[in-house]
Amino acid sequence: MSVILIVEDNDKNMKLVRDILGHKGYTTLEAVTGGEGVRLALEHKPDLILMDIQLPDIDGITALGLIRQDPGLDGVPVLAVSASVMPEDQHKIVTSGFDAYITKPISLKPFMAAVERFIKDGRGK
Q1: 6: phi then psi, degrees, rounded to nearest 5
Q2: pLDDT digits over 69-99, tens only?
Q3: Hey, how many other C-beta atoms are within 10 angstroms of the C-beta on 18?
Q4: By the 8 A CB rule, do 82 and 52 touch?
Q5: Strand, helix or coil at 110?
Q6: How confident is the model at residue 124, as a pLDDT?
Q7: What would the pLDDT profile of 109-119 be if each residue is shown by its tens digit?
Q8: Claim: this prediction has a pTM higher than 0.90
Q9: Strand 48-52 to strand 3-7: parallel, antiparallel, or no bridges (unpaired)?
Q10: Mapping DSSP to helix (H, G, I), strand (E, B) and coil, where does residue 58 land?
Q11: CA 69: distance to chain centroid?
Q12: What does the alpha-carbon distance between residue 58 and residue 28 come to, in Å, rounded to a whole number?
């Protein structure tokens, strides 16, 4: 079964995503800071990364940049998961190299559709 890394500093959001993915049979890794997310990504090479943008140490965009520096992680899709609703913030997130953008609060069907599509197809499809 696929391994999904969740990088999320909000306990309730982390639990929700963990429970949804666990119920669907996915194995999850969890990080509460961007730095920890980068470390776990490098160590475990997950099949998918769900990255919050606003994190306590480095933001999700910076973490994505560090992840993309590792050639071994080049094929791993990274999805931004953010409550940011300002158009300029969304534009910055989308243009920073994330494979997709998922808004919070999470809507179950579109969320799972995105997860399953990227698990199945990987990046750039």
Answers
A1: -105, 120
A2: 999 999 999 999 998 778 888 888 889 999 9
A3: 17
A4: yes
A5: helix
A6: 64
A7: 999 999 999 99
A8: yes
A9: parallel
A10: coil
A11: 16
A12: 21
